[in-house]
Structures are given as C-alpha cells and as structure tokens.
Design goal:
By secondary structure, this protein is mainly alpha-helical. The mean pLDDT is about 90. It is elongated. The chain has one domain. The chain is about 90% helix and about 0% strand. The chain has three helices and no strands.
Length: about 100
C-alpha cells in the first residue's frame, strides 16, 4: 500500500468513527438544541472526512472532481440548514 491509500483509509475510518460517536451522542442528548448541534457536527465533519477519503481513493479525474463539488456543496448548505432549523425552533419555542 502506498502512503496515499493509508491516508485515505485513516480518513475513512476516523470519519466513520466520528459519525458513530455523533449518532450515539444524538441519541443521548437531553433536548432538541443539543441533538441538532450533534447532527450538524456529524454532517459537516464526519461526512467531509469520508468524502475526502473517497476522493483520495478515486484518484485524479472526473470522480475526484465530482466528490470535490459535493464537498463544496455540503460546506455551503449544511451550516445554513442547521442555522435555519435552530432559528425556526427558537421562534416557535421562545424561552421564558
């Protein structure tokens, strides 16, 4: 195995571990806001590590370009989606 494969597999395993730990955290969190925060972290960090690993394993070419576009799309939309969910929750459930 070359060093690029080792780095890709390390990213894939760490990304999967991050998603698993985050999913368990989502199940154990007490309220909506902390669960949504855990979901946002899983979406951004875990998926990014897995997608970068896939891009490294696919090599150069159209596959890596498509994965890079997916990464850019996720970096733009995921934080905005979590922010919109939080804002909707806060407007529908004002704190006393």
């Amino acid at each position: 195995m070359n060093p690029l494969d080792i780095a890709a597999w390390a990213l894939a395993v760490s990304g999967c571990a991050f998603v698993l730990i985050g999913a368990v955290g989502m199940l154990r969190m007490p309220d909506f806001t902390t669960r949504a925060h855990a979901a946002g972290l899983i979406d951004v960090f875990g998926t990014m590590q897995i997608l970068i690993a896939l891009a490294l394993l696919s090599g150069s070419g159209a596959g890596a370009l498509k994965i890079a576009l997916i990464i850019v799309f996720l970096l733009i939309t995921a934080p905005a989606a979590i922010h919109a969910i939080f804002k909707t929750y806060l407007h529908s459930n004002p704190e006393p």
